[in-house]
Amino acid sequence: MGETYEITEMYPAYLEIARFQNDKRDEQSFTYALSAPDKCPVCGATRERFKSHPHQGFRPL
């Protein structure tokens, strides 16, 4: 649950705080953390090849 909680609860709140404080570096970091890639930067697998894991977020199939 840890990573799921971070992505669904903590990161959106941190992103809003960064925007409120006009902290562009943190805003960019949390924006990146919340966006799922279209393809894996390591192996090139497309998003369709990923599935959600209840404890570890998105992983290749």
Brief synopsis:
The protein is α+β, with helices and mostly antiparallel strands and 61 residues long. The chain is built from 2 helices and 2 strands, in the order H-H-E-E.
Description:
The protein has 61 residues and is of the alpha+beta class. It has one domain (2-60). It contains 2 helices and 2 strands. The protein has helices at 2-20, 24-34, and strands spanning 50-53, 57-60. Strands 1-2 form a two-stranded antiparallel ribbon. The radius of gyration is 13 Å and the shape is elongated. The chain starts with a helix and ends with a strand. The relative contact order is 0.17. The mean pLDDT is 78.
Largest sheet: 2 strands, antiparallel
Count of runs of 4 or more consecutive helical residues: 2
Mean pLDDT over the residues: 78
Nearest-angstrom radius of gyration?
A: 13 Å
Helix/strand structural class = alpha+beta
The portion of residues assigned to helices is: 40-55%
What is the total tally of β strands? 2
SSE order, one letter for each helix or strand: HHEE
Report low-confidence residues grouped into runs of 5 or more.
none
